[in-house]
Amino acid sequence: MPKPQDKYLFDSSVFIQAKNIHYRFGFCGGFWDWVKAGHGAGLFFSCKKVQAELNKGEDKDECKAWAKGLPTGFFVPDMADARVMQAYKDVIKWAEGSKHYLPAAKKEFAGADEADAFLVAVAKAHSYTIVSQELPNPEKKNRIPLPNAADEFKVKTIYVYDLLSKHAASTFQLKP
């Protein structure tokens, strides 16, 4: 069984960009199977807010259909978890109090339909590493990058390709 620091929490951007660009369902099913295998090994998860973001897709959206077919437990609770909600309050308080980010960036980050603040809160409350397509950008002011917010709370992030290097063979077979 993986150690707590070996649990990964996927951002929706990983799935959306994968289906639109690098790992389309028509020619790279291995990526999607790898994610499922990682969950089966107790490594890969996401949160309910990400599930909601994926469900916004059109009914014919392959990523939406794939997400609906994931095993129970892949999308961990966020709003229904008291520890997460306490961490979420801290994350939002930090964002609102930041003098670095523009008001529009703070408003977007705190939006009810946005998953980023919840990802940080879930990761903080339950020792996950966040998997994202985003890289830190300390100069950015008009948007709060997910890795920047995670850094504020000492939450680890990993770029999806670094996770692939760590936990996937060239055939997308899971390497625990």
Chain-wise SSE layout:
Blueprint: E1 8-10, H1 12-22, H2 29-40, E2 44-47, H3 48-55, H4 62-68, E3 75-76, H5 82-97, H6 103-109, H7 116-126, E4 129-132, H8 146-152, E5 157-159, H9 160-167
Parallel strand pairs: 1-2, 1-4, 2-3, 4-5
Helix pairs in contact: 5-7
Short description:
The protein is α/β, with parallel strands linked by helices. It contains 9 helices and 5 strands.
If helices are DSSP runs of H or I spanning 4 or more residues, what is the number of helices? Answer: 9
What is the CATH third-level topology name? Rossmann fold
- Topology pattern, helix = H, strand = E: EHHEHHEHHHEHEH
**Structural class of the secondary structure composition?**
alpha/beta
User: How far apart are the first and last residues' alpha carbons, in Å?
Assistant: 10 Å
Indicate the low-confidence ranges by residue numbers.
Answer: none
Largest sheet entry: 5 strands, parallel
Q: How much of the residues is beta strand, in percent? A: 5-15%
- Overall outline: globular
**Helix proportion:** 40-55%
Number of domains: 1
Task: Tell me the number of strands.
Answer: 5
Strand order of the largest sheet: 3-2-1-4-5
Q: Could you give me the name of the CATH homologous superfamily?
A: 5'-nuclease
Q: What is the CA-based Rg, rounded?
A: 16 Å
For the residues shown, what is the average pLDDT? 94
Task: Tell me the name of the CATH class.
Answer: Alpha Beta
Architecture, CATH level 2? Answer: 3-Layer(aba) Sandwich
